[in-house]
Specification:
The structure holds two protein chains of two kinds. Chain A is an alpha/beta fold. Chain A has two domains: about 15-145, Up-down Bundle (Glutathione S-transferase Yfyf (Class Pi), Chain A, domain 2); about 150-335, Rossmann fold (3-Layer(aba) Sandwich), CATH 3.40.50.11810. Chain A is built from 16 helices and eight strands. In chain A, the strands form two sheets. In chain A, strands 2-1-3-4 form a four-stranded parallel sheet. Chain A is globular, with a radius of gyration of 20 Å. Chain A starts with a helix and ends in a 30-residue tail after the last helix. Chain B is of the alpha/beta class. Chain B has eight helices and 20 strands. Chain B has helices at about 10-25, 40-45, 55-65, 130-135, 175-185, 205-215, 270-275, 315-335, and strands spanning about 5-10, 25-30, 45, 50-55, 70, 75-80, 85-90, 95-100, 100-105, 105-110, 125-130, 150-155, 190-195, 220-225, 225-230, 240-245, 250-255, 255-260, 265, 305. Chain B has a five-stranded parallel sheet, covered by helices on one side. A five-stranded parallel sheet of chain B has the order 11-18-12-13-14. In chain B, strands 6-7-8 form a three-stranded antiparallel sheet. In chain B, strand 3 and strand 4 form a beta hairpin. The mean pLDDT of chain B is about 95. The chains are: A alpha/beta, B alpha/beta.
Chain lengths: ~350, ~325
């Protein structure tokens, strides 16, 4: 592997990311899957870094899931997108930041389509006006929320309480970075680092002391793939995709996986349990799985937040092995206490994959 | 000596035209931007279909122009229409008034790193067709393993690829891949050799014979399908994914090295001359001829002619034939025929 070759590509795919004043929209599903990630994003950006990141409860789905499941016409999706832009415009912002990778791809695709076909944009403006009497400006800048954390990664490093370094050995932790398919595979220039060797997560890992692993199936889908999972008959295909990735990354002995998509951490996390139940095989050390994180969770750990405040108790694969390697202190007894310190009950322990 | 003629480019087109113009009695100036004559062909090892040594061919061509004025490591600085010809200033300080100019500026190799999915410049054992020829010429290349057991060739890298901005077929890559595959099989008889192709364009004399030999006598595997991605395994091998469209299934193979058949693209270094001489660029980026059937060597401007791959992708025999035709056309033009 020629690292300088990757650096050349990374330098070719940099995007302009304004340093402040962002209109933030949450994902439909992330708050259910990894509930503290988006809250941690606003916590880090607003409170730790002091940035103007605005959000409103009036935004809706972008329609991306239905679009990629082929159950909704593109014009309908575009009208939903237009309404989101109208909310941004009404709030006085021009930099748009979605939390969801599919939304990011959806917005990028919509803007590119309007650029190619201005008559379609005019029609969508008319649709929006007829539907809810709103008007909108197109965003001046579009960035995924992982782009922003990438942009501010050195600011986070300056405030770091823990690094991605094994406290026992002093070696960098070995991190698999997994990018959501809709981040840059459709429009390579919209993503930091492009489509083939994305740098958005790799840059965070490097800044925070870790070592990025490149393995043969790095580019492969996490297994979600929308219809691979939502059509129940296809779920074996979803699982086999995930299985392929883990078989490929296993020889590199990764300490953790970092992701930037709503679906990827969920499937990489949950399917490890299913693979273990079906085959008896686990991919981490000593019968554990490989812990999977969102970039906000990793940023939170680096900044010294309590792992249970980050919602890490809701992961299927135990996160404790990574916490120990990073030297993060945690109270095992507090793992299943809610914010009000009351017991939120314990999950049933699986048979084949070790959990704490 | 008769009138001055300037030839821009010292590849096979420029060399062949210089020889013929000199024989016709013209004061011929050959200007080459590099320090050696021979262009791309001089960097090659052997040429199909005769497996002829390029070293011998270029040596003979250079000997044939020993009485021609050659400026190496020199470029055209300015070119202006003047006194029924062209006033040309070279970067070496020489000025020449030429009655006619022959542009033989050739092509550039497609930059293989632009096809990021193949990992040229990223993975340790991915090389180009040009790298392989240089290695066959004796240059050391640590990207080529000492005894590879599996070798792949990817056809059409940057050719017939709208995403890469090139719609043209490079004409020679199919045959070059087959030639190089056979050469590697001869050097490494135990290696499995794969050619990944879109379709094989084997139009020239004996090309089809090479293809048959490659399959029948050398056991080279031809896979009709495009490579989708290349990655590196933990032990430094290459994992190549492709689609085999003949059996309708995806394919994954582990290789020790991969050769990218980088195609021909227009030579952008000629652009300042194009602008000054008010020449036209065609939709494929190459120089635009008066027409592409009977006047391909004519620029449409009085006294400026073309030869070789400056107007589009060409084989060496086509280039040599065009160079001779261009020399004769210049003679006719100056003679007022």
């Amino acid at each position: 592997m020629i690292y300088e070759g990757k650096q050349k590509i990374w330098s070719d795919y940099q995007k302009e990311i304004p340093d402040d004043h962002w209109y933030y929209v949450r994902s439909c599903i992330r708050q259910n899957f990894f509930p503290a990630s988006e809250r941690m994003f606003t916590e880090i950006t607003q409170k730790v870094l002091g940035k103007d990141v605005y959000e409103t409860p009036y935004h809706t789905t972008c329609g991306g899931i239905a679009y990629h499941c082929d159950t909704i016409p593109q014009e309908t999706v575009m009208t939903i997108v237009a309404r989101q832009f109208a909310l941004m415009t009404e709030a006085g912002y021009e930099n748009y930041c979605p939390s969801c990778i599919t939304s990011f791809g959806n917005y990028a695709e919509t803007l590119e389509t309007w650029r190619e076909f201005p008559e379609l944009e005019a029609k969508i403006r008319e649709n929006l006006w007829k539907a809810c009497k709103r008007e909108f400006n197109k965003p001046k800048y579009l960035a995924h929320s992982s782009d922003l954390i990438y942009h501010w990664r050195e600011e986070i490093r300056k405030r770091a309480k823990h690094l991605l370094i094994n406290q026992e050995t002093g070696e960098p932790l070995r991190i698999v970075e997994h990018i959501g398919c809709h981040y840059s595979k459709m429009f390579p220039h919209k993503g930091v680092g492009g489509a083939e060797y994305p740098y958005v997560l790799a840059g965070m890992v490097e800044s925070w002391g870790g070592q990025v692993i490149d393995y043969p199936e790095r580019r492969h889908c996490c297994g979600y793939g929308f219809r691979q999972y939502h059509a129940k008959a296809n779920r074996g295909y979803s699982l086999s995709n995930t299985h392929k990735k883990f078989e490929s990354m296993e020889p590199y002995k990764p300490d953790a996986i970092i992701t930037n998509c709503p679906g990827c951490p969920y499937f990489l996390d949950r399917w490890q349990y299913v693979i273990a139940e079906q085959t008896g095989k686990t991919y981490g050390e000593n019968g554990y799985g490989i812990p999977v994180f969102t970039y906000e969770e990793i940023a939170g750990l680096v900044l010294g937040y309590d792992p249970w405040d980050l919602g890490l108790q809701l992961h299927q694969v135990a996160v404790e092995p990574l916490l120990k390697k990073m030297g993060v202190e945690y109270d095992p007894k507090a793992k299943y206490l809610g914010l009000n310190k009351e017991d939120i009950m314990r999950p049933e322990m699986p048979n084949s994959i070790k959990c704490c | 000596m008769k009138e001055n003629v300037v030839i821009i480019g010292g590849g096979v087109a420029g060399l062949e035209a210089a020889k013929n113009l000199h024989r016709l009695g013209y004061q011929t100036f050959l200007v080459e931007k590099n320090k050696k004559l021979g262009g791309h062909v001089a960097t090659w090892h052997k040429l199909f279909p005769d497996m002829a040594s390029t070293k011998a061919i270029i040596k003979e061509m250079v000997e044939d122009i020993k009485d021609v004025t050659v400026f190496l490591d020199t470029q055209v600085k300015t070119i202006e229409s003047a006194h029924g010809g062209y006033q040309i200033a070279f970067s070496n300080g020489v000025n020449v008034h030429a009655k006619a100019v022959l542009v033989a500026s050739g092509f550039e190799l497609f930059e293989a790193a632009k096809k990021e999915e193949y990992g040229y410049g990223i993975y340790d054992h991915v090389i180009t067709n040009a790298d392989l020829e240089a290695w066959m010429n004796g240059n050391k290349d640590k990207r080529i393993p000492a005894s590879p057991k599996a070798i792949g060739f990817v056809h059409c890298v940057g050719s017939r690829d709208l995403k890469a901005g090139n719609s043209q077929c490079s004409k020679v890559c199919c045959m070059t891949a087959i030639k190089q595959a056979i050469e590697m099989k001869e050097r490494f008889p135990n290696a499995e050799v794969y050619c990944f192709y879109m379709d094989l364009r084997l139009f020239g004399k004996k090309y089809e014979d090479f293809y048959i030999n490659a399959q029948r006598d050398f056991g080279i595997h031809f896979v009709r399908g495009r490579v989708s991605e290349v990655s590196e395994t933990i032990d430094g091998h290459l994992q190549v994914k492709a689609e085999d469209t003949l059996i309708g299934r995806p394919l994954k193979v582990q290789l020790d090295m991969l050769v990218l058949m980088a195609g021909m693209v227009a030579n952008n270094q000629i652009k300042p001359i194009v602008e000054q001489a008010k020449l036209e660029i065609d939709s494929d980026g190459f120089l635009k001829s008066s027409d592409n059937i009977t006047h391909i060597i004519e620029s449409g401007r009085d006294g400026i002619f073309y030869a070789g791959a400056c107007t589009g992708t060409k084989t060496v025999p086509e280039t040599v034939a065009e160079a001779r035709a261009a020399a004769l056309a210049i003679h006719d033009y100056i003679s007022g025929l």
